[in-house]
């Protein structure tokens, strides 16, 4: 077959999770919690099914859930989205991102991605026939470099994809960085896809700077989030997109043909569950404790910790521990030490190796302790 995606193999997350199972390693690679969600959320699913919510929901999602999403965004970020015309429920952030890209990127359009970036962005742009323009985040700090972004803008630029809190680096964009982006794009008609799936995981009292807070950005942005991250249910694959009505209309043209609708009982359960803000308001403290517990243990090894300001990831510099490249190191760590991690090189098109790997700390304390016990051998 003539392949449309010659550079694509199996994702690093799948590869490392499979190796972790094979080697009986503690899996701190792929990002997902190893603990359950709130039992009230499970009960809400059972109740929704028992109440007969088992047929197709409306194409953009059930209204109650869209209303709950709009209320949350208004309360947290001060921007009002119309649930009828500006919010769409998606099959996770993954489907939200590819749908937004297919909806607006025409063959030959340039799309800027900031590397390192999540692995689905580039193949998504390729499928749309767009031209990927890779702009590196500042080496070492992973902060956006606005001179480089400005230099990458051309009359062919259709969109830029941003991600804060950032997977894999665990950095969080500041208000002034978001303002810089808003100012930079002001004279252009460039669209933004803002991947905010880790919006509720920002630590040390920091603030999530949603694109919704910035009127000049909100007017041109598809904001993407995912309930999988927020409510510890990554396998449910339910997320959403908030975007101005004109963009949402284009989004839904694709959405109705690539997924049409998202499963009904989960939507009802989420709609009733998310009325109470407590779970997501408590999430930073919940994960910060895990981050700190894990960091305290790692500090006793020769792995050097990078800052983790958000997400459920902790990156470490391996250069004092090993001469292997990141990818080989992760294979070795999984096989020989019994802890799976993800090489940052997987988030770069050219496999750039900076001797840094990513651990996920969305795990039971006992899982983290067991990983730390093994890592103590390093
Ligand atoms: N974007 C980023 C940055 C992610 O880390 C993830 C989850 N790994 C996704 C998108 C996809 O989210 P979902 O599981 O809801 O499709
Ligand atoms: N987003 C998760 C991560 O970065 C993995 C999701 C996936 O397996 N595609 O680890």
TrEMBL record:
<dbReference type="InterPro" id="IPR015422">
    <property type="entry name" value="PyrdxlP-dep_Trfase_small"/>
</dbReference>
<keyword id="KW-0032">Aminotransferase</keyword>
<keyword id="KW-0663">Pyridoxal phosphate</keyword>
<dbReference type="InterPro" id="IPR015421">
    <property type="entry name" value="PyrdxlP-dep_Trfase_major"/>
</dbReference>
<dbReference type="InterPro" id="IPR004839">
    <property type="entry name" value="Aminotransferase_I/II_large"/>
</dbReference>
<dbReference type="InterPro" id="IPR015424">
    <property type="entry name" value="PyrdxlP-dep_Trfase"/>
</dbReference>
<keyword id="KW-0808">Transferase</keyword>
<feature type="domain" description="Aminotransferase class I/classII large">
    <location>
        <begin position="24"/>
        <end position="375"/>
    </location>
</feature>
<dbReference type="Pfam" id="PF00155">
    <property type="entry name" value="Aminotran_1_2"/>
</dbReference>
<dbReference type="GO" id="GO:0008483">
    <property type="term" value="F:transaminase activity"/>
</dbReference>
<dbReference type="InterPro" id="IPR051326">
    <property type="entry name" value="Kynurenine-oxoglutarate_AT"/>
</dbReference>
<protein>
    <submittedName>
        <fullName>Pyridoxal phosphate-dependent aminotransferase</fullName>
    </submittedName>
</protein>
């Amino acid at each position: 077959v003539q392949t449309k995606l010659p550079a694509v193999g199996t994702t690093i997350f799948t590869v490392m999770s499979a190796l972790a199972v094979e080697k009986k390693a503690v899996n701190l690679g792929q990002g997902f919690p190893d603990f359950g969600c709130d039992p009230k959320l499970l009960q809400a699913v059972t109740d929704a099914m028992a109440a007969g919510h088992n047929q197709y929901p409306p194409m953009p999602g059930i209204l109650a859930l869209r209303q709950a999403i709009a209320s949350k965004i208004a309360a947290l970020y001060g921007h009002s989205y119309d649930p009828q015309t500006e919010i769409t429920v998606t099959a996770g952030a993954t489907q939200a991102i590819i749908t937004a890209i297919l909806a607006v990127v025409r063959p030959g359009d340039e799309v800027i991605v900031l590397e390192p970036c999540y692995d689905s962005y580039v193949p998504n742009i390729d499928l749309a026939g767009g031209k990927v323009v890779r702009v590196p985040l500042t080496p070492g700090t992973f902060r956006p470099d606005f001179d480089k972004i400005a230099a990458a803008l051309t009359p062919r630029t259709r969109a830029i994809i941003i991600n804060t809190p950032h997977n894999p680096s665990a950095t969080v964009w500041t208000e002034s960085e978001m303002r810089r982006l808003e100012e930079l794009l002001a004279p252009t008609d460039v669209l933004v896809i803002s991947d905010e799936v880790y919006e509720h995981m920002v630590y040390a009292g920091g603030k999530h700077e949603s694109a919704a807070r910035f009127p000049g950005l909100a007017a041109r942005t598809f904001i993407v989030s995912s309930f999988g991250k927020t409510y510890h249910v990554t396998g449910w694959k339910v997320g959403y997109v908030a975007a101005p009505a004109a963009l949402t209309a284009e989004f839904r043209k694709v959405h109705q043909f690539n997924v049409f609708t998202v499963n009904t009982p989960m939507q009802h359960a989420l709609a009733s569950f998310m009325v109470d803000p407590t779970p997501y308001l408590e999430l930073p403290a919940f994960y910060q404790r895990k981050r700190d517990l894990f960091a305290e243990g790692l500090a006793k090894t020769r792995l050097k910790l990078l800052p983790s300001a958000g997400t459920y990831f902790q990156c470490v510099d391996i250069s004092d521990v090993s001469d292997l490249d990141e990818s080989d190191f992760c294979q070795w760590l999984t096989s020989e030490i019994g802890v799976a991690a993800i090489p940052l090189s997987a988030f770069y098109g050219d496999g750039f190796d900076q001797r840094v790997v990513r651990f996920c700390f969305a795990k039971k304390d006992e899982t983290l302790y067991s990983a730390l016990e093994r890592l103590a051998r390093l």
